[in-house]
Each structure stands twice: as structure tokens, then as C-alpha cells.
Amino acid sequence: MSILGTRVLRTEDPKFLTVGGMYTADLRIDGAAHATYVRSSMAHARIRSIDVEAARSAPGVVDVFTAADIDLVPAVGGMGMMPPAMGRPYLASGTVRFVGEPVAVIVTEERAQGEDAAELVMVDYDPLPPVVDPETSQARDTLLFPEHGSNVAFGIETLAAMGLLGPDPRTTPDEHLFDGCEVVVRQRIVNRRVAPCPLEVRAAAARWEPDGRLTFWSSNQTPHGVRNALAAVYGLPPEQVHVITPDVGGGFGAKIGSYPEEVLVPWLARRLGRPVAWTETRSESMVGLGHGRAQVQFAELGGSRDGRIEAYRLTVVQDSGAYPDTGAFLPMMTRAMLPGVYDIARQECIPVSVVTNTTPVQAYRGAGRPEAAAAIERMFDVYADEIGMDPAELRRRNLIPGNVFPFTTPQGSTYDSGDYEGALDRVLEAAGYGELRAEQQRRHQAGGPVRMGIGLSVYVEITGPAGPSEYGAVEVLPDGRARVRTGTSPHGQGHATSFAMIVSDQTGIPVDHIDLIHGDTDLVPRGEGTMGSRSLQKGGVAVRDATAGLLERARELAANLLEASPEDIVVDTATGRLHVAGTPTAGRTWAELAEAAADDGGLAAEADSVPTGPTYPFGAHIAVVDVDTETGKVVLRRMVAVDDAGRILNPMLVEGQVHGGLAQGIAQALLEEVRYDDDGNPMTTNLADYTFVSAAELPSFETVHMETPTPSNVLGAKGIGESGSIGSTPAVQNAVVDALSDLGVRHIDMPTTPERVWAAIREVRQ
Amino acid sequence: MIPAQFEYVRAASADEAVALLGEHGDEAKLLAGGHSLLPLMKLRLAAPSVLIDVGRLRDLSYVSDGGDHVAIGALTRHHDVQRSSLLQSSMPLLPYVAGLVGDPQVRHRGTIGGSLAHGDPASDLPAAILALGGTLVIQGPGGAREVAATDFFRGFLETALGPDELLTEIRVPKMGGAGWSYQKFNRRAQDWAIVGVAAVGAQAGGGVALVNMASVPVRAASVEQAVASGASVQDAAASAAEGLDPPGDLNASPEFRRHLATVLVRRALEEVASPR
Amino acid sequence: MMINGSRQEHEVEPRQLLVQFIRESAGLTGTNIGCDTSSCGACTVLLEGESVKSCTLLAAQADGASITTIEGLAGADGTLHPVQQAFHENHGLQCGYCTPGMVMAAVSLIEENPSLDEAAVREGLEGNLCRCTGYHNIVKAVLAAAGAGA
């Protein structure tokens, strides 16, 4: 029986459970000084002067630097697509554009001294009007980047000019889109800004070696990307830069690429002639690490009175924050997934990304796709409510059927495989939908302040976007252990276990005899890191391909030793032995073969997986809530999740990913939001004010696995990492509104805080 | 994340603590469990130059039966208040509230005295002590004095404690079997109350106290009067916010707090009236 | 103070937090710092057997005390504590950053509460934040460990 598809406990665990991981801030680098950034307290201001003299003479201070001191070429940010005029400096130069923007950096012997000295840096600001609202940012007189001439960073016109709009190249709304629709529902929806909050904040350290190489440690999801970026900035060939990502305590998209604070660390080390280490505080991270989501949407859904949806338009204003980067691009992912699981004749999505005086927005679990699902799933409920149809039935009538895959949407997304009706059926069954509606009826009739709500979502999303291949290598050592190398960069996903399972399945080497090397650019020649739920379908495939290559080499070796031909050599995965077919005694163990190959190049193989297109995992979620209409408090009673990411390698790891995504998606619907006041001051700058969800606010989850393989890769696997956060947010939000729709409430924006719920009820009762 | 520098001294007795306070004046703060003070110091919102650690004064940690009241040492931890069988039987409101403060780790360190001396209107225990009609025993250079809880909370984070005084004991009358309720409304279990209500039945004095409805822990005077004059629970609760100026913050507007107060007071009074 | 049975004696600034004493002076980096408002619990250790947030104590307050960190939980022969074992068997960790604090909080929770149900575990872990697991498997692990006579 194959080990694939079984629950294998993680080989990573023992270390984390006994001594803890080795995270970047745990490193002890001899002679390292510590960097502390001084950050802007103004959202938008010109810097008149920065006085660092008092700081410079504070105890333990090695030196203090401002923008004027930094002679470093700008890093290429903004995915190379954003306006150059909106490029972000390492330290604010002339103008600060968000509270938290670094304006100076202090290097000290001890870290605490940096905090002390930071209080002595005096910045003289000339305030400028803050732009905080993305909707008015477009029309504002105040420009963040006057040379650019507008606050628009990115839009559909840019994609059109690049020829990347797919089959639907229109950039202006079609005023006839809803012609003939008997019913059109319209709703403004806010997909609110959230903070990714990995438990480990950012940290980096740099040391220049005697031979001129740069060693750089960082808490990051993309070691090779960081290497290439640093090489470019520091004018070095990539081989001269050694990037190590030790254990990483979560990333969720926010640790893709490098932040200015990190890129500067090698400069400090070079300037001061000694290693430099940096780690931020949580309060700094809440304003310095990229935020997520932050879209204002206007959705319009039209169709017939009997539930046939014919037209959908989504207008998106993306808040990019002060310096447009990945976040500014993400509405294009929203557009790419516009119709979700539905077959809608006429569709339109016109997004625009603007800048505001807030923390720059980056990728965050789902990165553009949760926003698409949340919008269309909310609108389906609004539409269902309008025509008096059950929300599940409305969805069923409009799903892309199971027999049309691959299916290409008007935006050019080609869904590889799917069974949306199957997912809907499974979730309705798992939740006991009929009984839930009956219970809800009974409780509505009985009255009482606590009302029950049932919310549904059916979603599809895109993972492993087309792009470069991924690197994998496997080597067997004379002691019989196997060593795998991957260009992915796990930070909790369990690649050591899952990739070991792949190798074990093909070779018979036990999982606990297999080690994974990752996160070190000297030990792994190339890689794309871990993001976009790509790792198994790209990295796992590369490992599998490399193992196939290893088997070929092993067969040749064995054939030589056993005086047979390679085609006659079989691999007995039960015993981890290769032998002549039909003659089990004539064989060699993996250790023996590795020993034999030791002087002859070793027993190893590597592969770069063939680039394949993206895959489209899907699913359906149901949330059941109780809403206390007197206080507005929402309690999530049940969360039922059906998720299909193709063939499952390790169901335990899959569940873990789904659970984590569910928690984050639920949190966005019920609890979490980043808030700014009208002057651009962030109000949620620590984990006491930012209501990061805890175990006490969540139920246990009911997860159902579905497996509709993808033809895209040999593992039949799509990516599961983000699904949980995509389906859950609209399911929960819909449930809250469903609890109150009888009262006339039609929409409540996320998070559905007690006050928002109370206000919505009050509004309809007046 | 790291506090500004300070001098640390340890007091071996309450008398020594008082003497040290007198010596250092405004520059000094007492450190008990540290779970009100240290978080402020780590964010550099407070920066005393001297910390006087009284955390080891074991003789100020006790729960003892005083006949018609229970005497609780100021340095008794929330964990110990929560688990005291004496308190559970004689004034169940108090251990229940102590069990809702923070989280288990906080309750292993935070003290009732520390919480009361900090006087945060968003804290749970001040409201409980107010509702129960407790008395605070204070030690200063001139000896000991007593202050009723209703006179203890003077202004925002300002109590009747003088700069050279130490809270040593809290005396709380036994409840005599009276009904009670504590309504803590928050968004996450570890959060401060957005609004909270502590209430006890007539046999225990009929006190109703509010959390986060003013700049100080307060008693809901209108509610108490309404109840005492025979008003219905509904009518009494309707006056919950009367005369009060609740704060607006990230979690609630003043208007929402007013509304919550009426709902939570009503629920508290209902629970007070129902048998356990 | 004693940390995991070994004597640790270092001279420190008054403002040094216990978590810094553990990580920097004693070199035990298993205990992590995840926030600056005593909210996340990543720094949880046992002080005289009771869970505390080591970021909210001065090292000076723990002078002379007995501390247990994650590094001191397993047996001398490497046998995992039932809570560690349960976390492993129930996939109660992913990136591992919250794990040491979560495990120590769970040890204390189980020790003080003989009959834990799911609601009590979730309440009991209100002060320990995790971003990766969604808590589902952590709760399972704690209940399993409690049932296993941890």
C-alpha cells in the first residue's frame, strides 16, 4: 500500500517540541551590533530636519543614519510594474508617507540601547494633508507623489497596455451589461484591511565574510528571491550572496520579498565593518509589515426572477497603502477569479489601485482571491434574498457544470478540473442543511433575542500560478539516509514530511530516514520559495521527478553490481532494496548502492519540474452563527468546510492548512480589522487592540475532504494552503446577515462587530 | 518592548515599602504582580525611575474569615481569589470575577491589590468590590486608614492612595446568600470588558457597579435607586447610563456603550433575581 | 534562579525581562517573544510550576525561583512529556513559533484543572495566540494529553 494519502506524523515536530525552532532572532552572531529603526509618527509630512546628535551620543550607540547617508541603488519593488515615481526609499527622504515609515536607523551594541536612543531622535515635520480613504484618494487634491500626477498606482489600463487582459480587454464599463435583467441588486462592500500577524515578526542579520561574500539571514518565504534582490542592490553576482532562512514563524504572504529595513542591514554591516542584526517589535510589525486585503468594492448582480444570473460587474478600488507593491497588483487576481464557480454570461471587473497614507499592502493568504469570493458570494445571498429563493438553490442553478472542464472564464482563467455541484451537495449534507433551516424556522417563530443564521459559500481559487519551474534533488548516503533539497521554503507547511513521503513512496526508504534541506541558497541552487499554495504541485513534483531520476541511476548501479540489465532491476519499496526481478536474493540495499557510488559521483539526481499552468482548488463552506440582537455579539457555532485540492498526499497536513485558513477567514469576517483615524494614525498597533482571534472565539471545525485530481501535474495535486481563508469569510458574513434578513437587514460589512450588527438592526427598525 | 531604565529595590515588609515610597516620592511605583504596570512600561507609556517590588510580601497574601466579612490581603493573586473556598461560599461574585481577569497566566501573577490600586475603569475587580461594598485598608507613614470602595476611585487611574501609601487589605462583607451576577461583554475572551456589570441582591446591599462606563469604576446609582424603590428590572435597567459619560474607543462608541449598559444591567438584575 | 533544574546566575539590568534572562543570559531560545502587550503567550514558561508570561516579569522578580521552559519538559532520557507527545500525534503545531508557550500553558492548564472539556480548554488557552493551526488540533492535543493522565 502506498504511503501517499496516509496520515504521517511530522518529522519536523521533535525539534520544535523539545528545544524550539531556531528563528532568526535566536541566532548568536559574534560581534553583531543591533539595528533599531526610528519610525515616522506622521502619516503625511515633509521632513524639515532630523536631529540625530543626541541619539548619536547616547550609551552604546555605534552610529545613526538617515536617508542622506544611504548610498544604495533603489531596490526594484512593486513587482516591477508600479510607477517608478512611486518607488519606496529605504529611509524616508524628504517626505514621510505613512505612520511607521522608517526615517532613521540607529545601530547599538545592545538592542535595548537602540530603543533608548530612538527616543532621542528629533524629527521636525511639516504636516501635509493625510489621504486615508482610498475612495476619495482618486479625487483628492493631495497627491502623495506630485511628480506622478495622480494617486492612481495601477489599473486595468496598465494590464491592457501589457496585453495581459486575456480575452476581455475592455477597460471601461459596458453600460448595457444589465440590459434585459429582470432583477439587479447592487451593494457596496468593504473587504477590510487586516494584518497578517505571523507569530514571528520580521528579523534579519547580515555579515560580510573575509572573502567578500555576503551572508544574510532573514525570516522570509523566498530565500532565492531575496538573494537575487540583494545581489542586484549590492552589485554582486548571486553566488556571492548566501541567504539563509532559518526556521520561519509564519509568513502568510507578508514575508515574500524583502522590506527596506531588511535590505539595509547589509549596508549597515558593510559601513560599520561588523555584523548587524535587526528584529522588530510587534508594535513596529503592526505598521511595518505589509497589510492585507483593503478593497472597497461595488458589486452589481443581475438576472432573471427565477434565479438565472446573467450579468455581474465588480468595481474595485484597491488601497495600496503609501508605496504600491504587491497589494496594488492583487485586484488583478480578484479580476482573474471574478465569476468564481458560476457560469455568468456577461461579466466585468474594473479595478483601480490607489495610494493612501497608510502601511503598504502586500499579499495575505489568498491574495486577491478571497476578495473575489467574498464579493460574489455576498451578492448571491443578496440576490437570493431579493427574489425569495434559498441561497443554496440559487447557487445550484448557476454553477459551472462538472462536464465542461477545462473551462475558460471570460477573463481567461482556465479552470483545470472541478466538481462544484459535488462540493455543494457534500457541504449541505455534512452540515445537515435541511435540519438547520428547520431549526432556524423554529427559533425565529419562538422569538427571543438570539437569532440563528446560516451562511453558505461555494468558491474556486487559483494556486501555483504559471511561472518558473521548481528545483528538487535527492541523494542517498552510504548510511542509507536520503537527503532531499528543495527550492520551496516551508514555514510550517510540513514539507520535510510530505516530500519525504514522496521519496519514500518511490524508494522504500523510511520517512524518518529522509531529511529535507531548504532555505539556504548555498545548499539549494535555485528556487521560488513558498507562496500561492504552490509548493506541493511544483516543489513536490520536482522532488518526485528527481526521485525518478535517482531510481534510474540506482537501477544502473544495481545492474552493474548484479550483472543484470537495468530493466530487470526492481525496487522493493517494502524493504528498501533493489534486486533482480524474480531473484530477491540478488539485490542491494540503498545504503550499499550509495556506498558503491561514493567514489563515482554519488547516488543522486536533481530535477527542475516542468512549468505547468495554475490549478484551481474549490470547495463549499457553511457557517452557523448565533446573533444576539440585543448586544450585536456574534458567536460562531459551526464551521463546515468541504475543500478539494486534488489528490491528497497527507490528509493530516491538509487539515492543518484548512484549519489555519478557516481561522483567518473567520477572523476577518467577525473580528479583525486594521483601523486608522482621519489623520492617518493607526489605531490597532498591537495584539491587544488588534483583535487577533484566539481559541476561545472559534469552534472546532468540521472538515470534509474531496479529491478531484488535476491533470496539471503528475501528483494530481492542487494547492490547499489558502482555501480555508477564501471560503470561510463569505460563509460567516452571509450567516450573520442571514440571521437578520427577516428583520430587513440586507448587508453588514466585515468584520461584523457588535456595534455594526447593532447599528444594522437599529437602521431597519426605524 | 523594553522599559526605560529604572532602579529596582525590594521591600521586605509593608513598613519598608511605605518608607521607600516616602524616600523616592513621585519617581517611584510599587510593583506587585506587575501585570498592570509592566505592560505600560514596556510600551514606555509609564517610566518610573524606581520600582519598589512588594511581590514577596507573603504576609500580605491571605484570605481570612472575619466573621461578617472576609479580609483579603492586597497581594492575594487573582488565581488564589478565584480558588478560595471561603470566598466561593461567602461571596461567590468575587472569585467568579477574579476568574475572568485576563488569562490563566495573568491570574497567576496579578493581585487584587494591584488591580484596585491601578484603578482602571475597564478592570473587572474594582467593579466587583464596588458592588460588594468593600473597604480598602491603606498603610501610610502615619499608620493605617480605611477607605470605602465608593470613595476610593477618584479620577482616571487615580485612587485615594497617596504617593507614599500601600494598599494592604480589602475587607468585603459576606453576601449572606444574596443573588449575584457579573456580565462581562467583550469581543475576545482575553479582552477587557467593553462594558461590564457587577450586581448583588438586596441582602448584600443591592450594589450595581459598572465597568468601562466612565473614567472611573462607578456604581450605577440610578439603577440602585430604581431597584430599591421597587421599579421593574426593565425600568431599572433603562436608567443604567444615566448621569454617565461613557468613553468612545476602538471597541464601542459612547452611544453603543449606553445601549449595552441597559442590556447588561437588565441581564444582571435578572440573574440576581433567579435562583442558582 | 533554577531553570530546568540547572542553576543560572547572571548579573542583569533591573529592566531585563525574565524572557530575556531565559533567552539571552541562559541561552535557552526555545521560549519566544511574539508581542509587546502580554497578549500572545509565546513566552509562557512555568514559574514554580504555574504558567506565567515571562515577558511580563522582570528577571529580578524571579530571582531565586524555579523555572521550567520547553527545553526542560521532556524526561532526562528524552521521553516526551504527554503534552509534547499529544501535540505531535495530533498535529498541534505548524511553524512552531507559538508552540513552546502553548505547550507550557497547556501543561499548567491540565495540572490545575482535573476535568477539562473543549470549552474549558479553549477558555484556558485564551492567552495563547496561534496563527497557523486555527487551534483545532491544539485543542485536540490538550484534551488527549489531559485524558492520558498528563
What does this structure look like?
The complex is a heterotrimer of chains A (766), B (276) and C (150). In chain A, 29% of the residues lie in helices and 23% in strands. By secondary structure, chain A is α+β, with helices and mostly antiparallel strands. In chain A, β10, α6 and β11 form a beta-alpha-beta unit. In chain A, α11 runs parallel beside α19 (723-740), α15 packs parallel to α16 (535-562) and α18 crosses α19. The longest helix of chain A has 28 residues, at 535-562. Chain A is globular, with a radius of gyration of 27 Å. The termini of chain A are far apart. The model of chain A has no long low-confidence stretch (mean pLDDT 96). With 276 residues, chain B is of the alpha+beta class. Chain B has three domains: 7-53, 2-Layer Sandwich (Uridine Diphospho-n-acetylenolpyruvylglucosamine Reductase, domain 2), CATH 3.30.43; 58-173, Uridine Diphospho-n-acetylenolpyruvylglucosamine Reductase, domain 3 (2-Layer Sandwich); 180-273, Enolase-like, domain 1 (2-Layer Sandwich), CATH 3.30.390. Chain B has helices spanning 14-24, 37-42, 78-83, 85-90, 93-98, 104-107, 112-118, 124-132, 149-152, 221-228, 233-238, 254-273, and strands at 7-10, 28-31, 50-53, 63-65, 69-73, 135-140, 143-148, 153-155, 158-159, 166-173, 180-185, 195-200, 208-211, 218-219. Chain C is an alpha+beta fold and 150 residues long. The mean pLDDT of chain C is 97. Chain C is globular. Chain C has two domains: 2-72, Roll (Ubiquitin-like (UB roll)), CATH 3.10.20.30; 82-147, DNA polymerase, domain 1 (Orthogonal Bundle), CATH 1.10.150. Chain C contains five helices and five strands, in the order ββαβββαααα. In chain C, strands 2-1-5-3-4 form a five-stranded mixed beta sheet, covered by helices on one side. The chains are: A alpha+beta (766), B alpha+beta (276), C alpha+beta (150). Chains A and C meet through α1 and α18 of A and α2, α3, α4 and α5 of C.
